[in-house]
Amino acid sequence: MAKLRKDINAFGVFSIASGAMISSGIFILPGLAFSKVGSWLFLSYFIAGFLGLFGILSMIELTTAMPRSGGDYYIINKTFGPLLGTVSGFLGWFALSLKSSFAIFGISEIVKIYTGINPLISSLILCLLFVVINIIGTKEAVSFQIGMVLTLIVLMGVYIFFGIPHFHFEYFSLKKGVDINNVFMTAGFIFISFGGLLKVANMAEEVKNPRKNLPLGLVCSVTVVTILYVAMVLIMTGTLSSEVFAKSLTPVADSAQLTMGNIGYLIILIASVLAFFTTANAGIMAASRYPMALSLDKLIPSIFGRINKKTETPILATLFTGILIYLSLLLPLETLVKAASTVILSSYILTNLSVIVFRESKIKNYKPSYKAPFYPWLQILSIAIFIFFIIDLGSSAIEISLVILLAAVVVYIIYGRHRAQRVSALVHVMRRVADELLVDESLEDDLREIIIDRDRIEQDDFDILLKQAKIIDITSSHDYSSIIKVAAPDIASELHLSEDEIIEKFQEWYNSCESAVNDFLAIPHIVIDGTDTMFMYIIRSKEGIKFSETYSSIKAVFLLCGTRDDRVRHLKTIAAVASLSEQHEFKKKWLAAENTVCLKNFLVLNDRKRYF
Fold this sequence. Notes:
- By secondary structure, the chain is mainly alpha-helical.
- Strands 1, 2, 3, 4, 5 and 6 form a 6-stranded mixed beta sheet that branches.
- The longest helix has 34 residues.
- The protein is elongated, with a radius of gyration of 29 Å.
- The two termini are 23 Å apart.
- About 1% of the residues have low confidence.
């Protein structure tokens, strides 16, 4: 299957997140929020932005550890298993599609006011436009997003600049003091304004150098948007009387008309259209990654995960997302947007829980390049705050979310349950608590592959052989003959030979060759019949294995089996093992590795030179 192209840089991350946030949250919502808290509204926006940054820190940690399409779905699937992963994927797909449809609805209403065109017709055209842009390529969609976001930020800056001279301090009344409970309640009400932060996580796989660009882009985005929101709310509060502000559904436009006349109204009209465009474009871009990620994990049919080789985009997933967005326009939007808010807040809760589960699981290949501070108190406090916000949104939003949840469970039972085979981080926590020694390494293998892709580690045939190799730790005393007997069953099973044949061939090698490379390493190797086959079996013994009187304490044994037609690769593999063992501190790191997972990480993620 083709891979997604890595075209998104730090500014692209910033633009997607900012474009997804700046929308109705600032162009429509302030009037409704002002009626709740009055002139202290700027403080509610500041708190909401601060909590948005607070909550996104855990998401940054998880996405730098696992930069994969599907974002919160992928993370929750790896944390809690495929059932909750399916539920998260469906809820996220539906939520982002609804947010996009709400933005398209806003554009369509503006088009209707000035042209009289039926909103359903203009909405269809807009859906097709965004689908085509995102099918053409991620790079093109991100470039489109960057241009719109830059223009939008400039226009918002113009509004702030020209609004300052018209500021009326008498409108800005704080005489009654601050009701901190009301301020926090209002912060929860407007928190949806910062919901777009999670959209970038869905596209993490397409980010160049995610170790650097994801944290930089996301932190800059929430910081800049919070500053713009607070400044704009202060200008609105100081230019509109409290009676006008509390009743206005277009407070920014009303304020701009007072401070700059009709030209100001036109500027904000353009800015609001751009805001809706950026939200819709970022929404369909991010939402389409949910079905793709679900299909790759065999939780829905694989056709949704197919990536076009020419455009390197998930065409069918994008097309179905466009259809879902258009159909959503036929539904009552207000309640459904609240449901989308509930899902976004739920994602914040689950991502903070995921950080706790992954850290406590002690999984060796969980290696985020950024770690959220103040663990676990930051995560616990975030969870408590976001639960409070969900309760405040009301029962109707929760009920609709439960309907989507039920549909996801049905899909999982009918389709995904028999196909998905993944071990979650939660299982590792349970095993750790139960003190069990047997741990399934499939999640470790998945995370190792993510590290290789994230850090752009070059791979060769030797790396492939290492990843497929069986690695065991031997604690008791052994000699050469006894370790061959230990390894023979696994090698025989892999090569479809008898155990006696394997033992005999390795004994022939022992009788005809020098028994070890040096006093630390031995590479027993045999040639077998057949074609295009090579297998490696790796043994570590901290106590040492006796090969001969000269080499009586070998710590590293690489058993190699290869067919006669591939002698060149066979010899190169022996050379690669020998070269690896000569690296600085190889012996120290080999003996210090905690277990076989750490050993495989050390060998595969090594910064040795690749030759073939």
